[in-house]
Fold each of these.
Amino acid sequence: MVNRIAVVMAMAKPSLARAEHHPMAPDLNLDRTISRGSSSSSARIVFVVNPKGANGRTGEEWKKLLPHLRSRLGRDCNIYESFTSGPSHAMDITREAIREEADAVVAVGGDGTLHEVVNGFFWAGKPVCACERDRNSTTALGLIPLGTGSDFARTFGWRNDPHEAVERIARGLKTRIDVGVINGDIGEPHYFINVADIHLSAKAGYYASRYKRFGNFCYIIGALRGFMGHTNKDLKIKVNGGVWEVFPQVTAICIGNAKFFGGGMKITPNADPRDGNLEVVILQNFKWYDFILKLHRLYNGTHLSVKNVTSMRVQSIEVEEVKNSGSIYVQSDGEHLGFLPRKFFILPSAIEMFC
């Protein structure tokens, strides 16, 4: 069983080869075992690495981290690495690792890589599981933040320090965290661990994703592009399966499982990914100059007392346009998901995570 994860990954992608303590190939496109524990019962941990993250900095920082990773975890763990080659690949790696009874899957990169790994914990609307495993034993989630943005880590007060992240894994302390779910009219549900958002902020995020090469400056570029041609819209909202209520002139809606998005903006300041709720923040009738005047309040999380800002705690929320235009953007954890209508709800204590 010790070698099954690496073997299955290699079989699934014929172009990938497994190596033992060999230098990484120039294109970083390989799966390999990087350390073995001292016994066959050692924990099996799969590191999912986005080598192109942060303009290639993630791959470079990962190479620098490997000696420390081996020395800190190698005695007690069988450690595998797998490099992503494109969109959605992290989801496939995660699902295969869980099915092959990995004890943990660790996302190495930014919020985008973490988002894909979290989605890999689910398939066809249900959690992925290893059929031969004891139901009381599950695969844990880990994070080593090495990407452009690490907003989810900020909720826990974690620094953008990979050595500190390795220590969290080495300690082995875990907590159950909630996961948000997004349903549309058709297709599979989508999962998010951080923040989902609607309208202006989602549009800005859509454009920001095109300028990741500029680091956190991409969020400013995205905001400028998002404001171009923006108009506030009347939206219908249903909370916890209740009655529909019209919210006029909505600028943006943010639905937080955690607190931060957009490179450090504390948009849902009361969100806690362990309390079984989503925090919903609705901005209405904001003009471009409102964001300039109130930007500091959005970043420090004091905007809930600002005029035209509404906050609520929910287990589910449905959002539709009053007059359907099919043009209201929806995103989660920085990934564009299409347009309204959508339903959002919480899965309490869905994943165990190193803390």
Amino acid sequence: MASTVIAAAASSSMAATAIRATRCYALPCLPPRSSSSSQSFPIKQVSLTATESRRFAPSQTRASSSEESPVDANEIFTDLKEKWDAVENKSTVIIYGGGAVVAVWLSSILIGAVNSVPLLPKILELVGLGYTGWFVYRYLLFKSSRKELATDIESLKKKIAGTE
């Protein structure tokens, strides 16, 4: 009985080896590499017409010095310094700027959390597409509604600027 188990195990291992062997030899063999590096490969020469040679010609650029550039770093810094000196409530500007940075940071965290919830990003994308379609139909499709949108935008600009 023990001999039949050993014989069965031996025959199954030989069958597995045979299967592995056939799998290895199923791949094509590569030709042996020659040690000489001067192998000759056929090279096809291509002649270009005049228009093609102009198209593939390298572009020429000139290096310019910093004196010729239209933007001067010192000029930008002096303009910024003058504008900063003209600001009366510097603390308010700093608070608003810091608040804007914190708002952008918090919104990126919120968007990351929403994106991690399954199916919610796709649902919100569908809602956005639906609202975009409604907006186009309501305000952009017809001439009268475009005029209405333009007057709404102008009145909003006046409210923000404080001229109304």
Amino acid sequence: MEVEVKLRLPDSKSHQLLSTILSPFHLKTYLQENIFFDGPNTELSTNLAALRLRFYDLDSQCVLSLKSKPTITNGISRIQEEEEPLDPTIGRACVAEPWKLLLMADSHSSSSSRIMKRVREEYGVDEKKGLVCLGGFRNVRAIYEWNGLKLELDETLYKFGTCYEIECETSEPERAKILVEELLKNNGIQYSYSKSNKFAIFLSGKLPE
């Protein structure tokens, strides 16, 4: 179970101000490309699941993930997540031909994937049905180590606009939320509790109000 604090920033000005404030605590910045897949009859998304390939820094690495059963309340997100590393070359081939992902559901495959086995068995998406590439979005993620917390400052670029958000994965979400909210308030940065995850925003085709 992945548990995160998710606070939305209203605009690029707020994002830049927070980035400047946190700059002494900066660890690294990733350029991420997120590509999503579903069955031809939305077998995954209608069951609140998301199958994703994430590429980092121009294909330096690739991660296959399956997220399911998301909830988000008062800025605290909980979601079941499973991840597996994947060769970026194979990942790109799967973007071009999504059916290749399903070949990894075979336990005898050289690139056998527990995630793809779950997609086949739990969601009924098999080689006969195939997979559909939904497209995706890019994200610039700056990571900071601050007050014992790992903060992720995101600039998410959808085709229909840009969102700004600060996230913190933690086993103590209430405590982390208090600390992050104090950081924002003490520096005059407006924020609101995120009400949807990035995939839900992507599917909606519009920025949250």
Amino acid sequence: MAVEMLQDWCRWMGVSSRGGLLILGILEDCSEAEFQGALQAALWPMGHFTVLGKVFREEDNATAALVELDQEVNYALVPREILGTGGTWNVVFVPSCSSEALLDRVFHFLEQQGETVDSVPGDPGLELDRVCRLQSV
């Protein structure tokens, strides 16, 4: 649901959701200076960003913020949480690919290696096999 909120908000603002982050759980008593400081500390490795807007969400009793990065999200650098005023804020981003696309990549890699899902030892092979069977049903 949070990813859908991010996508909808980005669409409404006319920006790409691939370069956007949704920050959830910002308490009302967090000042603008504290907010900006926490974002700077957490997001500096990702480069320049702009806060496009904030909105209070009654269901969370907290504020959500839409942040646009100057470049596409580098998923390795995205923090899952930001330590802010009153606790941690959750960071939401659009996943880089769907589960189907991920499975296609895994199968392609295994095929290039001359392997199959069944030949991969340990839990990853079993989990992929289960996922494949579920998708085929």
